[in-house]
Amino acid sequence: MESLTKNRQPIGTLRALVGRAFGEARVPDGDGWVHELGHGWFNVAYRIRLRDGHQIVLKIAPPPGVEVMTYERGAMATELAALELVRSRTSVPVPAVEFADTSHELIDADWFVMPFVDADNYGIIRPTLSAHEQDGYDAALGAATRELNSIRGEAFGPLGGPGVATWREQFLGMVEAVLGDGERREVDLGHDYDAVRDVVAANAGCLTAVTEPRFVEWDLWDSNVLVRDGRIVCVIDHERAFFGDPLIEAGFVATQLRSFGDPTAFVRGYGRRGSTSFTSNERRRRRLYNLHLTLVMVIETVYRGHTDTRQYAWARERLTETLAQFGSAPAS
């Protein structure tokens, strides 16, 4: 995916980064040792074969001169913190961090190195799989998400703090930050910004039911899952994790917005009894989370510098669909 946030580097700089991480003796030479991994939306990532044959992924944060959305600031530090939490507190497979550098001595951004995992990207191969195979992977993703959510935090908010005492305060701050990002760049939502704020305020009472901060990935779509031989072998891209309400996870989006797919297997794998197991309060919260998500999806297309408007148009349709679920009257 093309994005202004991708901090691409010349071959000489990539060699210097490899030398810093592994020593000069392992720096590759010749041709064909580096390939950009193109499916991500935010950071640039390279697959690199070292001189001794070991394969790594080098991930580089956006350059400082590129404006990102408020919640994306410090995203690589968040990812490193998330990887440590997941590796130390769960059995969910995530990459090991082989080297990380936040000094900005060689390039103008944070970067880190992890092993290359030889597996298929589930989001890419999904259309080639049978319904039975998709069901199995979706259920496994639900189970993995539940285990990730078992990690407890001290406060709601960023993994590295500072956090806040209530989920209501944290979530309302997240929504306001996204709306502020949109207003700053004059993004056309197709809806009045203050009218969106009114919808959120009218329905915010349901958020007080969430009292325990839990680790959430938030961005755990099938495109961030690597699979092989019927099982999940790695979960990648953790830069949007925070402590919040597990119901905000990506796997639950389709319980309210079926344009995102069929959530049945994910929900079953998570340990819920299906859509009927969600309470009225949970359904209301999920509508708010979908509103936040679709706002992000619309506004981020401008920050990424997309020239193709299809993603923007699709996201605006989903935003309108989400707002329509609230109706004209405030929730009681």
UniProtKB/TrEMBL annotation:
Species name: Paractinoplanes ovalisporus
Instruction: Give residue ranges for domain Aminoglycoside phosphotransferase.
Output: 35-287
- InterPro entries (UniProt xref): AGP_Transferase, Aminoglycoside_PTrfase, Kinase-like_dom_sf
Source superkingdom: Bacteria
Q: What is this protein called?
A: Aminoglycoside phosphotransferase family protein
Checking PANTHER family in the record gives: AMINOGLYCOSIDE PHOSPHOTRANSFERASE DOMAIN-CONTAINING PROTEIN, AMINOGLYCOSIDE PHOSPHOTRANSFERASE-RELATED-RELATED
